[in-house]
Amino acid sequence: MVCGEANTGVYTRGKPTLICRNTMERQSRNSDNWRWLCWCESGLSLGQSRHERCGPPGKIGAHCWIYLARSLTTYFHPGINLKKIHYYSIKLYEKLEEETGQAVGFHQPGSIRIATTPVRVDEFKYQMTRTGWHATEQYIIEPEKIQEMFPLLNMNKILAGLYNPGDGHIDPYSLTMALAAGARKYGALLKYPALVTSLKPRSDGTWDVETPQGSVRANRIVNAAGFGKELFESDLDRIMEHIEIAMEMVPVLKKADIINVVNGPITYSPDILPMVGPHQGVRNYWVAVGFGYGIIHAGGVGKYLSDWILHGEPPFDLIELDPNRYGKWTTTQYTEAKARESYGFNNIVGYPKEERFAGRPTQRVSGLYKTLESKCSMGFHAGWEQPHWFYKPGQDTGYRPSFRRTNWFEPVGSEYKQVMQRVGVIDLSPFGKFNIKGQDSIRLLDHLFANVIPKVGFTNISHMLTPKGRVYAELTVSHQSPGEFLLVTGSGSELHDLRWIEEEAVRGRYDVEIKNVTDEFGVLGVAGPHARKVLQKLTSEDLSDDAFKFLQTKSLKFSNIPVTAIRISYTGELGWELYHRREDSAALYDVIMNAGQEEGIDNFGTYAMNALRLEKAFRAWGSEMNCDTNPLEAGLEYFVKLNKPADFIGKQALKQIRAKGLTRRLVCLTLATDDVDPEGNESVWWNGKVVGNTTSGSYSYSIQKSLAFAYVPIELSQVGQQVEVELLGRNYPATIIQEPLVLTEQTRNQLQKNGGKDKM
């Protein structure tokens, strides 16, 4: 198969769309005398079956079909985790006929995605470094090789190709029948048609499923419903522009006759990705819905879900498919706007730090949105608008995505200096926030978290682990009053974490009250060496280091505005997080900004915060730690108390992991690049081989080099070890350093008090 550049082809993602014929004789559908024309992720795909009986290259023979009623099976996916889903699906389909005796019509001629612009070539290079540490084969090939592999292509604009051996196409009907046959072979009972008329949850967590054939009692429900077989009227005029472009790329298509048009619906979620997993707020209710590309996801998702159900935890990180990434803010209007946008953007270049603007803003805006929207570039986080970076008069304010440093690079550097040298304010309202209280609240949290429970009036960083000892979540836990806690997590983890907590509370029959207060409270972060001086002007409460210690939490008032203040900052500098009623956000922001004029106070966004936290070697959930990692290899030993009395989830597994020893470890790297910085998920090389991957990265404005976290084999994890990091087709020398690169404010103060200036 050959896949065309963006704007090429009929964008149907493998749905039956167009049948062309240049023959007087119709052949058997299962004949080998077929060439296959499909439409895939980057546009046009053209390939041929394993037996070439269709005449010489460049000519469609007498008994040759061009046929689109096939489903594409591609190893390629721009995301990291979904590559695993694609890989498993293809490997399953390769052996399905042998295992079930059911033919599936699976052909694997390979695919080539075509680049006709320099930026698309950059995208291919970007994808190559994210593939090197996966099992999938993928190569960038030159135009000469493309023409050799597919002579029918018009080579006038071709710059490069991204080649995936093993990509192919499969008959969806035969595949479905084979999967059903395999399920029956291993004991599954299939009943169809079986219209579900009602789902009734029971108090014990089971379900009554009502059908015309009677009621079925189920331990759990997996909703895998789709949109049926309904078709629309044909409308070739709407897509003729794309067909004509496809014909320019493959001129032989101009001689083909269109004899049939099939126009069918495709399921699209707001972000294109399906929703897979258990649903928050409903016991034992699972979903596998919203598949725009069902065939390539089917095998892998089936395995993923079944493993999760059997073993009580996901087999690997796949949070981008978590159905709980959507919430009450996801209205019908938002969904429609995003689905249209996502479909239209099917084949655009996929940049790092990409933003898409349809359907925004939602109802989830902080009290500062109106104040800040004209001053900054906003990012979208679980329905919230949050400042990524701020611009000054005369600076380029546009959205300029790039694989290299772009218009936000210098402004973010200014924000970095603002926090390190003066004082900055950041809107942290998108944090997920939960109140937990009740007779068993301490027992529940002691069971959930690997860390100890903080004393009343204090906060700590705690991790929820899976039974196998992987990091399911990271939260800050604040003990506000005896038995009453405030739990805070990242915006993208809100319902992901809440579901886990609620299910454990039910499973263990803990007497607790759990309330999601995310939308009720705003959060402002104030950080920098002058943070205390500014805030002290607004309260009679003593904010000195002795009176308001690091990781302490207090309820107080700033200019008569009630806040819960926690002395903590993800920047690693002196700072507080101020939790307050959402309706008070604008007023609180105004009094802080007015109080800080003498100190040169200003805003900063999440890009600067990321650079600051990396220099302090602060880990981020979803990057340095997730369901693919354990806390020991992630360097989180300080937060894991294996000697605490409570038998927290994952404790026994962690003891076994420690006894066996680690095979890899998270390290901090510095690397000298030119105009590109690591983002995360790039390949790490040593001695000519890929040995690991980065997890996140940024430019360090303190040492003026790139900085990254990476997992490497334990034998390569020593300080001073030289490796290479692949960025946009080039391997840059990198060195493992002693972390952190920059000491936290708290550590600097401790060293000064202890007379340790030389150590600093």
UniProtKB/TrEMBL annotation:
One of its GO terms (molecular function) is dimethylglycine dehydrogenase activity. It is an enzyme of class 1 (oxidoreductase). SUPFAM superfamilies: Aminomethyltransferase beta-barrel domain (SSF101790), FAD/NAD(P)-binding domain (SSF51905), Folate-binding domain (SSF103025). Residues 373-644 form the GCVT N-terminal domain. It catalyses: (6S)-5,6,7,8-tetrahydrofolyl-(gamma-L-Glu)(n) + N,N-dimethylglycine + oxidized [electron-transfer flavoprotein] + H(+) = (6R)-5,10-methylenetetrahydrofolyl-(gamma-L-Glu)(n) + sarcosine + reduced [electron-transfer flavoprotein]. Pathway: Amine and polyamine degradation; betaine degradation; sarcosine from betaine: step 2/2. It comes from the Eukaryota. Its cofactor is FAD. GO terms for biological process: choline metabolic process. Keywords: Acetylation, FAD, Flavoprotein, Mitochondrion, Oxidoreductase, Transit peptide. The keyword Oxidoreductase applies. Transmembrane segments: none annotated. One of its GO terms (cellular component) is mitochondrion. Residues 664-742 form the Aminomethyltransferase C-terminal domain. Its EC number is 1.5.8.4. InterPro entries: FAD-dep_OxRdtase, FAD/NAD-bd_sf, FAO_M, GcvT/YgfZ/DmdA, GcvT/YgfZ_C, GcvT_C, GCVT_N, TrmE/GcvT-like. Residues 80-228, 231-308 form the FAD dependent oxidoreductase domain. It is found in: Mitochondrion. Residues 311-364 form the FAD dependent oxidoreductase central domain. Pfam families: DAO, FAO_M, GCV_T, GCV_T_C. Belongs to the GcvT family. Catalyzes the demethylation of N,N-dimethylglycine to sarcosine. Also has activity with sarcosine in vitro. This is Dimethylglycine dehydrogenase, mitochondrial. It comes from Camelus bactrianus. The gene is DMGDH.
